[in-house]
Amino acid sequence: MAAWGRIFFIYGGQEAPGTLQAVYGQPLENHVGNCARLFTHLQEILLSDLTRDKLETAVRLHDRGKRETFRLFKDPETKRWTYSFAGHRFRVPHEDPYVAGLIRSHHEFSVERIQRERALLKGPERDRFADDLYLLCMVDQLEAELAVKEVEGAKDVARTFMEFVTRRDGRDGSYRVEPWPFKGNRLSLELLLYPIPLEFFRDSSKEQPTRRVAEVELKSPKIVSITMKCEEGHGH
Question: For residue 31, how far is the Cα from the chain centroid?
């Protein structure tokens, strides 16, 4: 059974705006691997020796609950297909309360959530929690934003709180990221996109597509490379 990290629905442009033209699935392992790559390239000044290993564990485990919560449905307003992993962050128990707290909180960077988790911690970890949660959310959302912009051609991607800005460079197709939190001046990610048959979404006489997509046979993926670079004059 396929474990998906994201599903891309490609609809027609102005000529056929409501026509589903292609569907691609990004494996969960690929998304998490990209998040881990971003984490391992963070500038050292952003990390704490006290919690670095625990934060890395949270980065590698944060979306494991998506295996159990994946579902597809049509948006009642737009009439377009979409997907959900609702509740996945609460499906990854961990024996370390710090790791567990980061995973539970990675979609809710709020004062209330942070204070609730800090109350379960002691000593220096309590003081460090908000910074590490921000870093977890940052690598997760940055990977997601660049993937959606690159595959769906979206100009803007909603973010709840992140401060960085990503801009596509028309000269070479790379993305400028500001502020730049990584070592060096450039960093690349690789997306693996598996085509999903359109008939899964067109044949209403068959079962709903969630199970069919989860059980689809994975064939040769389309490989998309994304290059990020810092704003000119801001290299490290």
Answer: 6
* 79 close to 18: Cβ distance less than 8 angstroms: yes
pLDDT digits (tens, 9 = 90+) for 112-165: 999 999 999 999 999 999 999 999 999 999 999 999 999 988 777 766 667 788
3-state secondary structure at position 33: helix
| pLDDT score for 1 | 63
Q: Number of C-alpha atoms within 13 angstroms, CB side, residue 216?
A: 25
Lowest-confidence pick of 80-94, 126-140, 180-194: 80-94
Residue 16 has pLDDT above 80, yes or no: no
Q: Could you tell me the pTM of the whole model?
A: 0.91
Output the six-digit token pair for 103. Answer: 């995973």
Specify the DSSP element, H or E, that contains 26: strand 20-27
**Count of C-beta atoms within a 10 Å radius of residue 234:** 13
Confidence of residue 42 (pLDDT cuts 50, 70, 90): very high
DSSP per-residue codes, 77-144: TT--EEEE-TTGGGS---SSHHHHHHHHHTT---HHHHHHHHTT--HHHHHHHHHHHHHHHHHHHHHH
Report how far residue 138's alpha carbon sits from residue 143's, in angstroms, rounded to the nearest whole number: 8
Burial degree of 176 (CB within 10 A; 0-12, 13-18, 19+): middle
DSSP state of 170: T
3-class SS of residue 44 = helix
Task: Report in angstroms the alpha-carbon separations of 52 from 7, 36, 60, 165, 186.
Answer: 31, 12, 13, 25, 23
Round to whole Å and give the CA distance between 200 and 8: 14
